[in-house]
Amino acid sequence: MYTVIKRMEISASHSLRLSYPSKCENLHGHNWIITVYCRSKELNADGMVIDFSHIKKIVKSTLDHQNLNEILPFNPTAENIARWICDQLHSCFKVEIQESEGNTAIYEKD
């Protein structure tokens, strides 16, 4: 089994739609640390699980310096964003998103 891990930082804003009053309902931003884990039993024709630049393109070109509420069709919690990223990459099995120091959400496929 081969595993590749890509870690990157993006800056993005969001506001959350919540069932309770919270300051997170106001538009605010984070410097998100995103770690993507991909794996495969076989390497592709280029000898890779996935090109690191493909992971970066999906994450950074879509999410970096954006208002996430305007580009994602769901409540942009760290948990939902982690799942969305994983769903965009065929070999992804886990995504960690650190929203701020001490606050990390993880999505892992079964």
UniProtKB/TrEMBL annotation:
Its EC number is 4.-.-.-. InterPro entries: 6-PTP_synth/QueD (IPR007115), 6-PTP_synth/QueD_sf (IPR038418). It catalyses: 7,8-dihydroneopterin 3'-triphosphate + H2O = 6-carboxy-5,6,7,8-tetrahydropterin + triphosphate + acetaldehyde + 2 H(+). Transmembrane segments: none annotated. Pathway: Purine metabolism; 7-cyano-7-deazaguanine biosynthesis. GO terms for molecular function: 6-carboxytetrahydropterin synthase activity; metal ion binding. Gene3D superfamilies: 6-pyruvoyl tetrahydropterin synthase/QueD. Zn(2+) binds at H14, H28, H30. PANTHER family: 6-PYRUVOYL TETRAHYDROBIOPTERIN SYNTHASE, PYRUVOYL TETRAHYDROBIOPTERIN SYNTHASE. One of its GO terms (biological process) is tRNA queuosine(34) biosynthetic process. Keywords: Lyase, Metal-binding, Queuosine biosynthesis, Zinc. Binds 1 zinc ion per subunit. The active site is at C24, H65, E99. This is 6-carboxy-5,6,7,8-tetrahydropterin synthase. Its cofactor is Zn(2+). It is an enzyme of class 4 (lyase). Belongs to the PTPS family. QueD subfamily. It comes from Parabacteroides chinchillae.
